[in-house]
Amino acid sequence: MVKIMASKLRDVELITDTGIRLGWVYDLSFDEETGDILVIVAEPDEDLDTSEFVTDHEGLLLIPISAVKSIGEVIIIDSGKLAVKSKLRRIGPTKKTEPQEEPGE
What we know:
Layout: E1 13-16, E2 21-30, E3 37-44, E4 61-64, E5 68-71, E6 74-77, H1 85-91
């Protein structure tokens, strides 16, 4: 396994496997207990419409580490695993319905 220093990732460009420029690495978010990297925090490209992407309160993109396909001169992101708001809406809580009364009750 090749080891990469986190400091070397700062400002590395993020591009999807479909060729969309997402932005540049700003920071990494870690699990405090395990030390696993959870999310790449990225400064979005100025031409990217971030309305469908998951962002933090500052407008930075939150890219799950599981979406990373490769790291080199650029970081390639699997667009199928990229967290977007429309996917999260489908996964979210479902609407509760009231039980229907049986006829004759």
